[in-house]
Amino acid sequence: MERPGGVHENDPPGGHRVNPEHAALIDGEPLPRERIDSFLDTPFRGAGNCATSHDGPAPATRPYEPPSVARQRRRWATQVVVTDELARRACSQRGLTVPEEVSPASVLAVAETDVADLGSIVAAALAHSPAARTLLAALEAEQTVPESAVRDYYDRNQDRFLTPDALRRGVTPFDGAAPEDVLPYEDVREVISRELHRAAGRQAFFGWLDQSRAGVTYSHGHEHPGDPSHPDHEHRH
Fold first, then answer.
1. What pLDDT was estimated at residue 220?
2. Dihedral of alpha carbons 15, 20, 23, 28, sign
3. Least confident interval from 85-94, 158-167, 227-236
4. How far apart are CA 113 and CA 11, in angstroms?
5. Cα separation of 224 and 141, whole Å?
């Protein structure tokens, strides 16, 4: 799961200092607070799904919001926008063409399964940012999954490949399923391969994001919501 990243304003000398007008510095270049305000004003469909996630409150609009929740909401939004900006730069460096921005009304919803697998910040960034989705697709395409890994997954997860008839009869691999109770490897190989490629691509994305966020310095009030250096921090598991 994702971890608090980057440097904050109170770090020892040697790091960049952030102008109060900026939400953060990315490799020394300012990220205007207006980018965060714009994201917070977006009718982000599905963001409420993130409210119970590992990375703090999502930017769901509520009639009343305690100050600590509002502060965390801004920090959460900062991480989403920072991820978008980092992905834009990575795509540019890789020569990847990023689709035009979607309108706020067309922003993708965040699925519960994605929040569970990715964490609310990464899930929301992928929903919000065409650049992040483009980069993830490129990283996934770069992954190599050997045939032995696909076969090993099949052999170790026979419960996932029971035939419909076996499922109706309540058969489980642990009760001694017969060979005919399990779908043939050839029938499910492509599905497994796609799933493993997807998982490897996500891991590569996490690795890229962790490395990229090392060059980010946050202004006060824009730290990672799980950063223990501020009193409102929240990083639940």
1. 84
2. negative
3. 227-236
4. 36
5. 30
**How far is residue 2 from each of residues 26, 59, 100, 205, 237, measured CA to CA in Å?**
19, 18, 27, 11, 11
- Evaluate the CA torsion angle 117, 184, 140, 42 in order and state its sign: negative
Range of weakest confidence among 105-109, 122-126, 180-184: 105-109
Q: How far is CA 68 from CA 35, 44, 138, 177, in A?
A: 21, 21, 38, 54
Can you tell me whether residue 8 is helix, strand or coil?
Answer: strand
- In the sheet that 7-8 helps form, which strands lie side by side, from edge to edge? 7-8, 216-218, 22-26, 29-32
- Measure the CA–CA gap between 70 and 37, rounded to whole angstroms: 12
* pLDDT for the residue 99: 83
What DSSP string runs through 46-68?
TGGGGGGSTT-------SS--HH
Task: Give the span between the Cα atoms of 126 and 80, in whole angstroms.
Answer: 9
Q: What angle do CA 112, 115, 116 make, to 5 degrees?
A: 90
Amino acid at 80: V
User: Would the pLDDT of 160 be above 50?
Assistant: yes
Q: Contact, 151 vs 185, CB < 8 A?
A: yes
Say yes or no to pLDDT of 90 above 90: yes
SS3 content of the chain, % helix, strand, coil (to 5): 55, 10, 40
**Cα separation, 132 vs 101, whole angstroms:** 12
Across the range 6-10, mean pLDDT stands at: 46
